[in-house]
Write a structure and sequence with these properties.
About 12% of the residues have low confidence. The protein folds into two domains: 94 residues, no CATH class; 179 residues, no CATH class. It is of the alpha/beta class. It starts with 6 loop residues before the first helix and ends with a helix. Strands 1-6-4-5-2-3 form a six-stranded mixed beta sheet.
């Protein structure tokens, strides 16, 4: 995470970090390293994959057996059979809207997706963080610019190369890893995914989502990672910022949400014997 120098920008980043649940992710990284070693999943980690390798969607239904995965769950190792619930990629409203617009020349405003989003805004909702129809037009104008850039350069830029860069690959195409290494799309980054598929871009950067423990056991993340020399060590200011975020969030009741007593016990143990500092130093930014 790039830490700004000015107090006002730092306050904004702290607010954004809390909203993105960075304290929880920070602790998750530490616990994952304790549990799984150097090959442990990293929250918001950037992986590089062929767009053709992503052909299925995680078919969640909100139940305990198939919960919906959000960006705040990035790097979480979750067992069960959730990864067996799959359906083909390409029939989602956003994907179909991109296909109609970029391949068939249909104006965004004439796609069912755009009309639905406009209706949601009229109901007082904020789809894709758009509060007004003008916001919606601006968002899709940015998608047009993204498509044009990708068409000319034959690549999607990772989040770290974008002006709005926040942390690792946070905000990118969210992809979950099944037990057999299958890449499953779900939540976050569908427009970018559609553009990558329509243009057959390879490789593309994706944000790590939830990982099945068998994929970790079999080291299936290794082939998706950049060379080790690009995973730079965490600087001391990053450690201080992470600790400050944790301290800020400790009073919040949701800090330990979805965390078992084993995770809490591991954190307490790490803090008590000094291992946590060496772990922080080994975690990439």
């Amino acid at each position: 995470m790039a830490i700004p120098e000015s107090p006002s920008k730092r306050r904004y980043y702290v607010s954004r970090a809390l909203e993105a649940q960075i304290p929880q992710k920070f602790l998750r990284d530490v616990i994952n390293r304790l549990r799984f070693g150097a090959d442990a999943p990293l929250s918001d980690e950037c992986l590089w994959v062929d767009s053709a390798a992503i052909s299925e969607v995680y078919d969640h239904d909100g139940s305990d057996a198939a919960p919906r995965f959000r960006r705040n769950m990035s790097g979480r190792v979750l067992g069960g059979d959730w990864d067996l619930r799959r359906k083909p990629l390409g029939h989602e409203p956003k994907f179909e809207a991109c296909r109609a617009h970029f391949l068939d020349g249909t104006p965004w405003e004439r796609t069912p997706l755009f009309r639905r989003l406009t209706d949601e805004i009229a109901q007082g909702k904020r789809p894709d963080d758009c509060a007004t129809v003008d916001d919606l037009h601006a968002r899709y104008a940015r998608l047009d610019a993204l498509y044009d850039e990708a068409w000319h350069t034959r690549r999607l830029r990772p989040q770290k190369d974008l002006p709005e860069y926040f942390r690792r690959e946070h905000g990118g195409i969210l992809v979950h890893i099944a037990r057999d290494g299958t890449l499953l799309r779900s939540s976050g980054g569908m427009h970018r995914m559609a553009i990558a598929k329509l243009l057959n871009l390879n490789p593309i950067p994706v944000q790590l989502g939830v990982v099945h423990p068998l994929a970790v056991r079999d080291h299936l993340l290794t082939r998706l990672r950049a060379p080790a020399d690009t995973r730079r060590p965490r600087a001391v200011p990053e450690i201080a910022f992470g600790l400050a975020l944790i301290a800020t969030a400790l009073p919040r009741q949701d800090l330990w949400a979805h965390s078992g007593t084993g995770l809490k016990r591991s954190v307490i143990s790490a803090l008590s014997d000094g291992r946590i500092l060496s772990l922080f130093n080994s975690l990439p930014v």
